[in-house]
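Practice set, problem 2.
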Amino acid sequence: MNVEIAVALIAAGGGIIGSFAGVLTSAKLTTYRIQQLEKKVEKHNTVIERTYKLEETQAVIQEQIKVANHRIADLEVGKE
């Protein structure tokens, strides 16, 4: 009977160790995948910020073009 108890304890210990190793491996994989996703999100956010700045600059340039066109039109009217 002592042998049966020893075998049961060894089997239980092996099961616990195997489960623990599986949980650790899964946690490492999850952490790695989260880090990769964070990198992708950071790249995406950088692109969004740059796009926003470009759109702001474009709006300013378009306004400057409108002002320049009005000035040119005013000068042309003044010549006539």
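Problem 2, part (b): a different protein.
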Amino acid sequence: MHHNPLPYRSIQVGLSGDVVARYLDRWVLAIIDLTDQVSDIRQALRDCRDVKDMPPRESPYPLPEELAQAIRATITADPA
């Protein structure tokens, strides 16, 4: 919200070829327009109001332990 560094790192993965079609046709569950919500957050920041509960919830993608170790990820799947 305030353009401060996050306590974790993220990666961006590019897709090409047939994977793009599969991603769009099979893997995307929904696309949600957040324009109004972002506008509300922007206004709250301008008004110096608390915005910590305003953004949509995000969660790390769970990785199996073996894969997490191989790519040196710090967040893994729950062992459930």
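Answer key, part (b): Helices lie at 18-27, 35-46, 65-70. Residues 37 and 52 are 13 Å apart (CA to CA).
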